[in-house]
Each structure stands twice: as C-alpha cells, then as structure tokens.
Design a protein that fits this description.
Layout (H helix, E strand, L loop, with lengths): L4 E2 L1 H5 L2 E2 L2 E6 L2 E4 L11 H6 L6 H7 L3 H9 L1 E5 L17 H38 L1
Parallel strand pairs: 1-5
Antiparallel strand pairs: 2-3, 3-4, 4-5
Bound molecules: protoporphyrin IX containing FE (HEM).
Family: Belongs to the cytochrome b5 family.
Main location: endoplasmic reticulum
GO molecular function: heme binding; metal ion binding
C-alpha cells in the first residue's frame, strides 16, 4: 500500500477533514485518522490538506514521536510530473538566522584554531629560548 504512487492532482482531491492527504518529503500521508488527535489542532492540517506540507511540518520542529506517527499514516509516494510545484525540501540552516548561526560558528572555529596555533608557536619559541639560555 505504501508503494502506491500519487500525482499532485490525485493528492489534491483529498483535502477534506474526513479524507485528508498531505505530502511530506515526497511521501503521501493520510492524516484523517489523526487530525482529531493532532496537538497542533485540526486547522493547520486542513490548511495543508491535499498539498505539500513539508515546510509547515518541518518549521514546527516536530518530535521523533510525531515522525513515528507519520510513518503509520503513509499511503504512498508522490509521483512528480512536469509542471508540478517544485519540491519543498526542507534544508536545515536555510533560514537566515540559522545560516548566520552556522556561519559565525564556522568563523569561531577558524579563530579558535588560529589562536591555538599562535599559542603553540609562542610556547615552542619560549621553550626553545629557555633551552638556549641554559
Ligand atoms: C500528518 C502530519 C502531522 C503529524 C503526524 C503531526 C504530529 C504532531 C505531534 C505528535 C505533535 C506534538 C508535538 C511533537 O511531538 O512534536 C504536533 C504538534 C504540533 N503540530 Fe503537528 N503534525 C503533523 C502535521 C502538522 C502540520 C502540517 C502543521 C502545520 C503547521 C503542524 C503544526 C503543529 C503545531 C503548531 C504543533 C505544536 C502544538 C503545541 O505544542 O501547542 N503539524 N504535531
């Protein structure tokens, strides 16, 4: 059953509360049995019903438990056709804050290595000078 392929137009026909498909990472899930239990409410799920919900799902930062529930709802995978909306792949760090965070972390690492190198060189020179003094 999970091997069934759906096109975007197939998925878009399932956009009601009783029959609700969502696409997350190019897999198709039937969320109708879960919608009443969704801690985030039914409204958000109905909003993305019949559509690609990857971004919405990932933006919330759902837990591993949520991902496990998702696995139980799978009905198939998405068959992309020409002219379909582009895949909404989620790239961690794609948001501006995350990018600047990781960028500053990268710079911090270089500075750390640089300072470490300078200190090691200084210590080496110091020891050398001391040895020559003896
Ligand atoms: C079928 C797909 C989905 C499943 C199985 C699911 C499952 C869950 C689960 C188990 C939680 C509890 C917290 C956690 O474990 O992370 C949660 C919270 C939440 N979900 Fe979803 N979710 C789905 C789709 C979505 C979508 C598309 C949105 C759109 C924005 C959304 C919005 C939220 C929000 C805002 C919360 C936080 C609620 C709170 O803490 O007050 N969810 N979801």
């Amino acid at each position: 059953m999970a091997d069934k392929e759906f096109t975007y137009s197939d998925v878009s026909e399932h956009a009601t509360k009783k029959d609700l498909y969502v696409v997350i990472h190019d897999k198709v899930y039937n969320a109708s049995s879960f919608i009443d239990e969704h801690p985030g409410g039914e409204e958000v799920l109905l909003d993305v019903g019949g559509q690609d919900a990857t971004e919405a799902f990932e933006d919330v930062g759902h837990s591993d438990e949520a991902r496990e529930i998702l696995e139980g709802l799978i009905v198939g995978k998405l068959l992309r056709k020409d002219g379909d909306p582009k895949p909404k792949t989620y790239e961690p760090g794609a948001t501006s804050t995350a990018t600047s965070d990781s960028a500053s972390m990268g710079v911090g690492l270089y500075v750390f290595i640089l300072i470490g190198g300078v200190l090691a060189f200084g210590a080496y020179k110091y020891l050398q000078a001391q040895q020559e003094g003896q």
